[in-house]
Design goal:
Helix content is about 0%, strand content about 65%. By secondary structure, the protein is mostly beta strands.
Length: about 160
């Protein structure tokens, strides 16, 4: 893993996301959203900022993902921010790329309960990629996927 792991990602992407409305409740209510993600290189690629904007039947979703490379550990941290919250998350996810896949893990409070969170990116080429987020309420034994995104590069 190196600071060039996210080089495929710089630029503008058309996105299609599916989001589980009520995770960890047994709900199967998903919504579809379409939008755009713009990824900007920072610090010569040792960090980057992804700005996501999508619209669906439940309204507009905006977020940013700040990803920073740690050369000592060889790992990346990823932290999400939402405009209605006004700050980045309390604990960034930490992870790395292996065999064409990146997995980031952290712990967050979901509905007042501490759960593990996994954010993964895979299938990245020059023109497409996929990501998903999943929660585990049992210490990582099982995972419930709650957000899936497909990215398609927008031609310059």
């Amino acid at each position: 893993m190196t600071a060039v792991d996210f080089d495929f990602d710089f630029g503008t992407w058309k996105t299609h996301s599916s989001r589980l409305l009520h995770p960890l409740t047994g709900s199967q209510d998903w919504v579809e959203m379409d939008g755009v993600t713009v990824v900007t290189k920072i610090w010569d690629g040792r960090a980057n900022l992804a700005e996501y904007h999508a619209t669906g039947p439940t309204g507009v979703v905006e977020l940013l993902a700040l990803r920073v490379y740690n050369p000592k550990s060889g790992q990346w941290s990823i932290d999400f921010g939402f405009p209605n919250v006004g700050r980045l998350g309390a604990i960034p996810g930490v992870g790395e790329f292996r065999n064409g896949r990146a997995d980031f893990y952290d712990q967050e409070a979901i509905n007042g309960r501490a759960v593990l969170v996994r954010f993964s990116i895979w299938g990245a080429t020059a023109d497409e990629a996929r990501s998903e987020q999943a929660f585990s309420a049992d210490g990582g034994k099982t995972w419930e996927v709650n957000w899936i995104t497909r990215y398609t590069r927008v031609n310059p």
